[in-house]
Design brief:
The protein is of the alpha+beta class and 354 residues long. The protein has 15 helices and ten strands. A four-stranded antiparallel β-sheet has the order 1-2-7-4, sandwiched between helices. The protein has a two-stranded parallel sheet with strand order 3-10. Strands 5-6 form a two-stranded antiparallel sheet. The longest helix is centred in the middle third of the chain and has 20 residues. The protein is elongated. Catalyzes the conversion of epoxyqueuosine (oQ) to queuosine (Q), which is a hypermodified base found in the wobble positions of tRNA(Asp), tRNA(Asn), tRNA(His) and tRNA(Tyr).
């Protein structure tokens, strides 16, 4: 839509950045909708079956890489970034080195980021509307077929690293992304440039070898996919490699040199809740479904459901050191109504018996 005569595109873009930062976004950038190179990468990735059981990726196809088809009239995308690394959570390496402890990806320790960021993007849109009048927009936070990392890279918020996460020289990779699709004729920012160089720390650290080549991830091997996105049985050869990771995996971020200078999150809602940064596998495995739902209220963890929660924990308990307490916990679930849970409990007991 055309802007009012008294407001220039550049001045509005500057205001949008200021409003965004006042709302808690660490960085705000603007891009156009051309994602041709990223679309080619997406198509090749899908053709190789690297999306695993995430059928929606195939189903949405190029809708993901063509913003103006997803939201007709889109001219520019405002991308935002928000740091989330909890300042007071137990050190991640300490948890990973303690086999009887439960490791949960840092982004899921606090409240679910989706609603929080969407509300703030809506507030940003409202402020723009107050300044220029009604305009076309839609806000997204990992909630639709959107190539958020590609758009953020185009908007200058960083570059897609070898581990396929977005990286920033000043902020590392511990941040969430969100987008505001708009019909505004705003000036675009220069895209981010790649600064991974010859480093392959993330590739070498991946427990399952999921980063099969620089900038290429096979989701079927990724622990985050296996413990969160995948609803079926976890392939047996991969189970020992999960260690005590019961929801996601941060290894590629933990070893990345750019994260040595990453800022901690300042949003209180992203701090660890219910002691999930320092809790034993046995304690979590004892949660019945009502307890699971209560303790994960407002958390991203709830989306996997109690059945997959128990599946993941059974694998982690099998990977823990030999322990009578662990065996007793697994045996208590051996007759669980879910075949999926029973299968992984049986595997855990076999591991404990070795």
């Amino acid at each position: 839509m055309p802007l009012p005569p008294h407001i220039s595109p550049q001045s509005l873009a500057n205001q949008i950045r200021n409003w965004g930062q006042a709302l808690g976004f660490d960085a705000v950038g603007i891009s156009d909708t051309a994602l041709g190179e990223h679309e080619t990468h997406l198509i090749n990735w899908l053709e190789r079956g690297r999306h695993g059981t995430m059928d929606y990726m195939q189903r949405h196809g190029t809708l993901r890489s063509r913003p103006a088809e997803l939201v007709p009239g889109t001219l520019r995308i405002i991308s935002v970034r928000m740091q989330y690394l909890p300042a007071r959570a137990r050190d991640a390496w300490e948890v990973l080195e303690q086999p009887e402890a439960a490791f949960i990806t840092r982004y899921a320790l606090g409240r679910d980021y989706h609603k929080l960021m969407r509300r703030r993007l809506q507030t940003l849109a409202t402020r723009i509307e107050e300044a220029i009048g009604p305009f076309g927009y839609r806000a997204f936070v990992d909630s639709a077929p959107v190539l958020e990392k590609a758009l953020a890279e185009k908007a200058g918020l960083g570059w897609i690293g070898k581990h396929t996460n977005l990286l920033s020289r000043e902020a590392g990779s511990w941040f969430f992304l969100g987008e505001l699709y708009t019909d505004l004729p705003l000036p675009v920012d220069p895209p981010g440039s790649e600064h991974c160089g010859r480093c392959r720390a993330c590739m070498d650290a991946c427990p399952t070898g999921a980063i099969v080549a620089p900038f290429e991830l096979d989701a079927r091997l990724c622990i985050s996919y296996l413990t969160i996105e995948h609803s079926g049985s976890i392939p047996e050869p991969l189970r020992p490699l999960l260690g005590n990771r019961i929801y996601g995996c941060d290894d590629c971020q933990l070893v990345c040199p750019w994260n040595r200078r990453a800022a901690l999150g300042v949003e209180p809602d992203f701090e660890a809740r219910h002691g999930l940064d320092d809790v034993s596998l046995v304690d979590l495995f004892a949660w019945d479904e009502a307890t699971f739902l209560k303790r994960t209220e407002g958390s991203a963890i709830r989306r996997i459901g109690h059945e997959r929660w128990l599946r993941n924990l059974a694998v982690a308990l099998g990977n823990a050191g030999p322990s009578g307490e662990v065996v007793a916990a697994l045996e208590a679930r051996a007759g669980h109504p879910s075949e999926l849970v029973r299968e992984h409990v049986a595997w855990g007991l076999e591991r404990q018996a070795k």
